[in-house]
C-alpha cells in the first residue's frame, strides 16, 4: 500500500539534501510517494506567503511531512516558520536523538546514545507577551507553563522509553529558582512518573545537566524538559556527537508529525553539492519509525553507519570524503538496498 508524504524541499541546501534523502528512500522500495509543499522563500516568491494555506492543508491531509531547512527573512512574515508550523498543528513533542557515529569529528566517538524530548508549544521560547518600554530601558515577556502541556510531554517521554526499551528518564528543570513555571513542570512530572514504575526517573537542574552532559553523557538515556531548556540542551547534545549535520528532529502532535534536519539552510554552500545529508536521512529514519516501518528505519540507520565506518570516499568533505551530497546518498542507497 502506497503512503504519501508531504515534502518541504526548503531553502539554501534544502533541495539538495532532500533529493539525496528521497533517492535513498526510493532505493528501499517502501511504497512511499511524495507531494511537494511550498514553504519559506520559495513560497514567498511563488505565492507571496511564507506558509501558504494550501501547504498547511496538504500537510493536514497526509499527516506526515519531511522538511528541509527553511529561511525566515528578517523583518517580515513569521518570527519563525518552524514555530508557526508547530503552533498550527500543535506539534507538542520535539524529539532529538543524539548518538555517537564512527569516524566523525566529535569528542565522543562512542558512548553517547540519548534522546532529548522537548516541550514544543509553550514557555519562554514561544515569546508571548514580548514588550519593550517606551524609553527602551526595560524588556519583558511572558513565560507560561501549563499542567496540560507538562503532563503530555512528560507522558510522551515515558511512553517513548517503554517503546524503545530505554530504562531512565531525566526530568530537567530550574524549579529551585523558577518556582512557579519550572516548579509546576516538575510537580506534574513527578505525578506522571509514579505511573511508570518500570522506568527510573531522575531529576536534574538544568545548569548541572549541561555540565554532566559534557563530562559524562553516557549517564543519560531520555531527557525531558521545557521548551527553551530543550532547545539549548538538544544543540549541546548534537555538539557531543559531531554537530548539527548529524542531528535529526521530529515534531509530533496528535494529528500530524513533521520530521526535519535541524540545521540551517546554509546559503553559503547552496548549489555546490557538498552538503552533508545525514541529518535529513536520520530524520527520515524517525519518520519511518513513526509510520510503522521500524525495520526499514533500522536498515537505514545501519546503512548510514556502515558508510561512515568504511570511510567511503563518497562521503562529503565535512566527513573526510571527497564526494558530493548525491554520491554520499548513492553509497548509502547501495548498502540499504543490499
UniProtKB/TrEMBL annotation:
The keyword Zinc does not apply. Signal peptide: none annotated. It comes from Coralloluteibacterium stylophorae. Pfam families: Iso_dh. Belongs to the isocitrate and isopropylmalate dehydrogenases family. PROSITE patterns: IDH_IMDH. The keyword Aminoacyl-tRNA synthetase does not apply. One of its GO terms (biological process) is isocitrate metabolic process. Residues 4-332 form the Isopropylmalate dehydrogenase-like domain. Gene3D superfamilies: Isopropylmalate Dehydrogenase. Its EC number is 1.1.1.41. GO terms for molecular function: isocitrate dehydrogenase (NAD+) activity; magnesium ion binding; NAD binding. Coiled coil: none annotated. Keywords: Oxidoreductase. InterPro entries: IsoCit/isopropylmalate_DH_CS, IsoPropMal-DH-like_dom. It is an enzyme of class 1 (oxidoreductase). This is Isocitrate dehydrogenase. It comes from the Bacteria.
Amino acid at each position: 500500500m502506497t503512503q504519501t508524504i508531504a515534502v518541504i524541499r526548503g531553502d539554501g541546501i534544502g533541495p539538495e539534501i532532500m533529493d539525496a534523502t528521497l533517492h535513498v528512500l526510493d532505493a528501499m522500495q517502501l511504497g512511499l510517494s511524495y507531494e511537494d509543499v511550498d514553504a519559506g522563500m520559495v513560497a514567498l516568491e511563488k505565492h507571496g506567503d511564507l506558509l501558504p494555506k494550501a501547504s498547511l492543508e496538504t500537510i493536514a491531509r497526509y499527516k506526515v511531512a519531511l522538511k528541509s531547512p527553511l529561511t525566515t527573512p528578517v523583518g517580515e512574515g513569521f518570527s519563525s516558520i518552524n514555530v508557526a508550523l508547530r503552533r498550527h498543528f500543535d506539534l507538542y513533542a520535539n524529539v532529538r536523538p543524539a548518538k555517537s557515529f564512527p569516524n566523525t569529528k566529535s569528542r565522543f566517538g562512542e558512548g553517547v546514545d540519548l534522546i532529548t524530548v522537548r516541550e514544543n508549544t509553550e514557555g519562554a521560547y514561544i515569546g508571548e507577551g514580548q514588550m519593550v518600554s517606551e524609553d527602551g530601558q526595560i524588556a519583558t515577556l511572558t513565560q507560561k507553563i501549563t499542567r496540560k502541556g507538562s503532563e503530555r510531554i512528560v507522558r510522551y517521554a515515558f511512553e517513548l522509553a517503554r517503546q524503545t526499551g530505554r530504562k531512565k528518564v531525566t526530568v530537567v528543570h530550574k524549579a529551585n529558582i523558577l518556582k512557579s513555571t519550572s516548579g509546576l513542570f516538575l510537580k506534574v512530572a513527578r505525578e506522571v512518573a509514579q505511573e511508570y514504575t518500570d522506568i527510573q526517573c531522575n531529576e536534574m537542574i538544568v545548569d548541572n545537566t549541561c555540565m554532566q552532559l559534557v563530562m559524562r553523557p553516557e549517564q543519560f538515556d531520555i531527557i525531558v524538559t521545557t521548551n527553551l531548556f530543550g532547545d539549548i540542551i538538544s544543540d549541546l547534545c548534537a555538539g557531543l556527537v559531531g554537530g548539527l549535520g548529524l542531528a535529526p528532529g521530529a515534531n509530533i502532535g496528535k494529528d500530524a508529525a513533521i520530521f526535519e534536519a535541524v540545521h540551517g539552510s546554509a546559503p553559503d554552500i547552496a548549489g555546490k553539492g557538498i552538503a552533508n545529508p545525514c541529518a535529513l536521512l536520520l530524520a527520515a529514519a524517525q519518520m519511518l519509525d513513526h509510520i510503522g516501518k521500524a525495520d526499514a528505519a533500522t536498515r537505514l540507520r545501519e546503512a548510514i553507519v556502515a558508510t561512515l565506518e568504511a570511510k567511503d570516499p563518497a562521503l562529503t568533505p565535512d566527513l573526510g570524503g571527497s564526494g558530493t551530497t548525491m554520491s554520499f546518498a548513492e553509497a548509502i542507497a547501495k548498502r540499504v538496498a543490499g
